[in-house]
Amino acid sequence: DTAMYRSKEVAGGSFHFYHEGMGRRTVENVKYENALYRALERDEFVLFYQPQIDYCSGRLTGVEALIRWNHPVEGLVPPGIFIPLAEQTGLIVPIGEWVMREAAGQLKKWLDAGYPPISMAVNLSAAQFEQDDLVSVVERVLEETGIPPGTFHLELTENQLMRDSELAIETMHRLKKLGVHLAIDDFGTGYSSLGYLQKFPVSTLKIDRSFIRDLMDDDDDRALTDTIITMAGNLGMKVIAEGVETKPQADYLATRKCTLMQGYFFSPPIPARQLEKEFLKNEKGMLK
Ligand code: C2E
Ligand code: MG
Ligand code: MG
Ligand code: MG
Question: ipTM strictly over 0.90?
Answer without folding.
Answer: yes
